Amino acid sequence: MKVEIWSDVVCPWCYIGKRRFEAALARFAHRDEVTVEWKSFELDPGAASSPAAEAPDASGYARRLAGKYGTTEAEAEKMLASMTGAAALEGLDFRFDRAVPANTFEAHQLVHLAARHGLQDEMKERLLRAYFTEGAAVGDREVLVRLAAEVGLDAEEVRTALSSQRFAPAVRDEQAEATALGIRGVPFFVLDRRYGVSGAQPADQLLEVLDRAWNEAHPLTVVGSGGDAAACGPDGCAI
User: I need a surface site. Which of 19, 199, 201, 219 has the fewest CB within 10 A?
Assistant: First the structure.
């Protein structure tokens, strides 16, 4: 089974959804036969990145959130507290007071490069933790080089790939694919191109969809059920 997950590395529900999906996958009987592929989705393609050297603005995230939803900063703080609580239940430490504004186009390219080396999930996880917990500037190219090196990629290869924008077409193709599939929000899970799950659904629900998709793709074929075969049923057993 193939599971494609569209998400962004600055999307809080994407990080929570990743943990919930991992919990569901851990309980899935056929987990060793599941291939997971992370797909690119930019929440704000026009976002400007702040440099790594810039001091964090503790109230900046709440202020940006309030502006986006047309609410007060106090209401935005409540939203962040709710998300922080939901993240904590999944073992995640969200620090919105450290979050650095970032354009994620190059971060998505980095995930593509990591996939070439079998490190896609490790890279995705490192970027999410860097942004939400550590306050790293994931829109800063040298920060991306450092994070990539930490998961095992070659720093010079990363610099070359980002300078040449080697994976920019791949990122744009995945974003166009999301539009074609009608994906408007993330995380969005697509299972074998048969089922789509929108949002950071609970692990139980994700497991249910995994089971359903698997059973439909691998229907049980019953043999030896006819004739005088000995068996038991609701009315008793054959003698």
Answer: 219
